[in-house]
Amino acid sequence: MPSWSAHLSHLDTVLHILQENILYAKLSKCSFGLSQVDYLGHTVSGNGVAMDANKVQAVLQWSCPQNPKQLRGFLGLTGYYRRFIKGYAVIAHPLTNLLKKDNFQWTSHATQAFEALKQAIITSPILALPDFSKTFVLETDASGLGIGAVLSQDKHLIAFFSKKLSSRMQNKSAYTREFYAITEAIAKFRHYLLGHKFIIRTDKKSLKSLMDQSLQTPNQQAWLPKFVGYDFTIEYKTGKDNQAADALSRSFFMAWSNRETNLMSKIKQATPLDPHLQAVIQAYAAGNPPNHNYAYTNGLLQWKHRVVIQINEEIIQLLLKEYHSSPIVGHAGINRTMARLSSQFYWPSMLKDSTHSVQECLIYQQSKSATTLPARLLQPLPIPNQIWEDIAMDFITGLPNSNGYTVIMVVIDRLSKYAHLAPLKADYNSKSVAELFINVVVKLHGFPRTIVSNRDKIFISHFWQHLFKLSGTTLNMSTAYHPQSDGQSEALNKCI
């Protein structure tokens, strides 16, 4: 804590700067040499932060509410100080239920909750101010009605957090509720925890290896990615040792799983090296940032509460690997990867870099689900009994000009694999193809029993279909995007 002489020296420096720049402060709004200051309903002192004594007195003198409007006023005042009250949501549960439509009936349970909330206000502790050079400890707890968390440092309380569970979440398993408590607590205290190492303590033994578990439930898939970017350790301790958690287990056991990342430290080291970001930081320090959305806290430049990343290939690749390829996120697609990154970070080419990274990810390309309808069972063509009874036809187009011919008509026997090749001009039609087919195939082998082909305009023309209907030949055409039906001619085309 600064000494009195140091305080006077700082005050003298500030007043001299104001005098040199011809700036004035209104004396009625200034206070000097105080050991504590009242600010927005709180009393800030060297010992920490406490509730305003006048507000506490107002809560104690509050009479029993007679209607929902009076109850909302009481809960609004006490809710403002919920960070001072451990388990606020659970204590106030009977009162919040009365706010439902046509449900206001004051009972003995409501009176007990009303008095318990007053007593909690009186006995609330003085919260310590955070010291970002020390390790934070986050203790979480979940019950059948709500969840709670305590943030502390060196056994000094910094803030409480509690939240009432929905009816749907109350029916979930104990594992899910405890997991949900950790998720909500990290989100609540994100401004304290992001960029700093912290410890999570829970009394649910199965959560000790949370970061090593496979993603099996929808809740895990939805909540685990929210932990990306944090540097923390999960400790399991019995309820007897962990006073913020319920005593679900009394066996003395302790284990932990570590999740370490040096991303934030690398970002902090690289930020001053970027001339553009350094100019923004200097402008912010001078009180004239280029945009009001900028903020600079704990060595991190932020844009709309997101950490600004300098154009550094190494850091960007580490972020993309952490938010796309790590076991927690499981090689997600472009939209999901972008959503996770943009919730905490910002750099100009984020979408371009994310798209490029996902498209080059071999595991994602191999494992992404098909969006097409499942194919039916394959029905192979019957094996021919005699040569030149069952044939296949196709055309090879776009060839270099040779004496006016740029197309090759391919006819192959499906049994003997013998083939006939005949040239065609680019302006061929069903009549010229039919004449060539008769001169090349029919005069040597007769009309075939079946012809396998694709759906070329020649093969679906009325002339072609009527010709082979008269000859008794069956036309078997492949379906769209299914060339394997005409595999014989396709294989011969590759050879040619």
From TrEMBL:
InterPro entries: DNA/RNA_pol_sf, Integrase_cat-core, Integrase_H2C2, Retrovirus_Pol_polyprotein, Rev_trsase/Diguanyl_cyclase, RNaseH-like_sf, RNaseH_sf, RT_RNaseH_2. Residues 376-496 form the Integrase catalytic domain. This is Integrase catalytic domain-containing protein. The keyword Phosphoprotein does not apply. Coiled coil: none annotated. Transmembrane segments: none annotated. It comes from the Eukaryota. GO terms for biological process: DNA integration. Keywords: Multifunctional enzyme. GO terms for molecular function: catalytic activity; nucleic acid binding. Pfam families: Integrase_H2C2 (PF17921), RT_RNaseH_2 (PF17919).
